[in-house]
Write a structure and sequence with these properties.
260 residues; mainly alpha
């Protein structure tokens, strides 16, 4: 009975690993290597893969330009109501993707939204709407990671730079950013992985127009609906590989950062 706690821990590890491994094994067992390769060479599948990568990269990079200064502000500034802003930023992560998509769609039913649609840029049922939806889901995650990264940087280093005559921007550019580099890149990668796998918010605002707004998650849904299982499984494996690669890179970047 002395080792009962270790047994509980090992059992939990075994269950967790078994569940995830069984999911990966089921995908690979259903579609052999030749089937997967043939599926991925299909023109429609290639189009959905290219569109997914293009939209998610643009959305994640745009989100980074907002998330980095926002995360730094939340990390360094002290002001009343700060917890409210932090709470609002978590909502897109915890909120149902479908509900988030409905909310985003309703924004363009307001007078301001209709003005944007009519005179500036169309978002509803357009690729730009996909970028907007994925920008929102990536922004929350990237901001939280950026804030956590800045929180772990010794503020005294910034204070020394200011004491030596650096401006706030120079301190941020030459002291804070280099120290936060790996953490910020990790946030960008995870934000991109979150964006490329989004279905709910993206499909609600951009629809599921074949060849136009058909990202990989949308294509999986459409192929499952039309019983084209090989294409659906092939795309599922691609998304799984994207997740594995993103997590692997994030792991090594995080490990390297802790060495500093």
């Amino acid at each position: 009975m002395k080792n009962w706690f270790s047994l509980v821990l090992l059992t939990a590890v075994g269950i967790g690993v078994s569940v995830v491994t069984s999911l990966l094994y089921a995908q690979l067992q259903y579609a052999g290597g030749a089937t997967i390769l043939a599926t991925l060479l299909d023109k429609d599948v290639l189009t959905s893969i290219w569109l997914s990568f293009y939209v998610s990269v643009v959305a994640a990079v745009l989100a980074a330009f907002v998330a980095i200064p926002l995360g730094f502000t939340l990390s360094r500034w002290k002001f009343r109501g700060k917890f409210v802003i932090e709470g609002l930023l978590v909502i897109p992560i915890l909120m149902s993707p479908m509900a988030l998509g409905v909310s985003l769609l309703l924004v363009f039913k307001t007078p301001m939204g209709e003005f944007v649609e009519d005179h500036i840029m169309r978002f509803v049922f357009e690729p730009s709407g996909m970028i907007l939806a994925q920008f929102i889901v990536a922004l929350s995650l990237e901001t939280l990671i950026a804030k956590s990264t800045f929180d772990n940087i010794n503020v005294r280093l910034e204070q020394v730079a200011r004491f030596l005559g650096s401006t706030p921007f120079q301190t941020f550019r030459y002291v804070t950013l280099p120290l936060a580099r790996n953490g910020l890149i990790t946030g960008l990668i995870l934000g991109w992985a979150r964006a490329i796998g989004d279905f709910g918010a993206t499909s609600m605002i951009a629809g599921a127009v074949k060849g136009k707004t058909e990202t990989m998650p949308v294509s999986i849904y459409l192929n499952m609906a039309s019983v084209s299982l090989n294409k659906a499984v092939g795309l599922s494996i691609v998304l799984t590989l994207v997740t594995v690669v993103a997590l692997t890179i994030a792991h090594f970047l995080g490990k390297k950062e802790h060495e500093y």
